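pinging the channel bc i need a second pair of eyes. not urgent but kinda urgent?? the chain im working w is below, pasted from the shared doc
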Amino acid sequence: MHNFDVIVVGAGHAGCEAALSAARMGANTAIFTITLDNIGVMSCNPSIGGPAKSHLVKEIDALGGEMGRNIDKTFVQIRVLNTKKGPAVRALRAQADKVKYAKEMKKTIENCPNLNAIQGMVTDIVIEDGKAVGVKIREGVEYRAKMVILATGTFMRGLIHVGENHFSGGRMGELSSDDLPLSLERAGIKLGRFKTGTPSRIDARSIDFSKVEEQPGDTELLKFSSRTKDEEVLGREQISCYIAHTNEKVHEIIKSNKDRSPLFNGTIQGTGPRYCPSIEDKVFRYQDKDQHHLFLEREGNETTEIYLGGLSSSLPTDVQEGMIKNVAGLENAHVMRYAYAIEYDYIPPQEIKYSLESRTVENLFLAGQINGTSGYEEAGAQGLMAGINAVRKIQNKEAVVLDRADSYIGTLIDDLVTKGTNEPYRMFTARSEYRLLLREDNADLRLSKIGYEIGLLPEEEYRRVEKKEKDVEEIKEKLATNYVGPSNPRVNEVLGRRGETLLKDGITYFELLRRPTVTFEDVKYIAELGNLELGDYCRDTEYQVEVQVKYSGYIERSMKMIEKHKSLENKKIPADLDYDSLTNIPKEAKDKLKKAKPLNIGQASRISGVSPADIQVLLIYLKARGN
């Protein structure tokens, strides 16, 4: 008999984060994968980050996770998106060398103490007395564990579609897991069906780059992880991406083959991602648009494969060839891999608790696409939290449940548990009502303490964050208590150059920095003649000061919103509350509350079908009970 503390099923982005976090917290951990060669594989796009997703990666890093470190080691291009917008929606995005990304993650897994990587297809969850106690693999070997984490991605009863052809597979060329979902159904867990897809890959040598728009990376120092040393990324040669466009001819080819699309002819039954649709879905949904963007991204330094972002499809191969060759610059494109759609089983996320533990089977945790999400970053975030909470349960400690006012990870899990999802869930900045405070630039300030206290973040890194926080406050205090006026010749020089109104009277440096176009560098330059010593600080600290000062008014208003939010989150709901005894709450709302089992009033208020009146009844009851 093989015994472990934690068993993780699946070695994608969720599984890797789950296994690493569990092992690093001291649990004897095993991670199972159908093939060890595909640990950490990027199944679809060769990138990490982007709007809201970069926030998740930075939060994973702040808690001690691996995704940010791994992309820093392996990116071939990095840039900041939405630079013309406010800091709340600015997003770091890195294009990865896909092979190197997976190779580095495999190396990290294999060199992690307390972690064993095992090749084997898990066919059964071993359940005794309603508790998960291990797994069985196809070879008949049984492995025991105190906690089991499922991170199966698209592999449960995966069905691949290319036009009229469909066949079983977890990814193109890989086996589907058909026995495991049957094991879950026998345990009483309900399954649903979702669909996702991936575009064709073409040979870079067959592209006329003179007809597409080049999109180079940023030249400034950028990285996802604060634990990545500057010298690890400085001077790295970057690969350009390119932008192309579909056209009316491409759209006509798609429209004339609608009956051959499994998406429209009834072959595909699963629901697809609304925010990442296939090209045929876009063409029929937005018929007023005569073109759609395509993003041509090289998949690594050692390959000529180009990922055609924006051209995800399940159309037949001849149709794919036709639409690709009618894009300007791709007339002679050689297709290296065809696009396909994949249907797979998932578990509706109402099945999970806020800790990501199953409500049906104790000691079974769920993370990633199995919970109805899409995206590497969403998966990695869930995997990290599942690994943390599996170990916390072994340690008889309270689960770590992040608040939606403190993190995007908290928002993601709260949305899944309280609202569920009827389509693959994707994170957006708009999903967070507190996005002005939950910026990617302050993820370390928000979450590093938790990462350190649970044993994932090294003390050295936590002390660095503490110093950064202290430095930011000291600088802000100096700016708020020192004045500058027109007698300083540099102040109106800078304001004139920036197109700002010149000073006639004195103001604090804090107020000066609040002006839209004035930078912290400007303030340092002016302060040199004003007997104000601001000192030398790292770039992150100075940027943090600038953001906090410039948006101080908005931040104060957001803080008041959060105070109100916290007042509801702090009103705990007893686990033994008998909702049926509350006569003034409708049966539908009672059923929703009993199913979700919210931990507090705030969570209860966000459950679809629970009204403000129902919340008032709950509050009155809790007050009468003395809670």
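so The longest strand covers residues 192-203. and The first helix runs from residue 13 to 24. — does that match what u expected or am i reading it wrong
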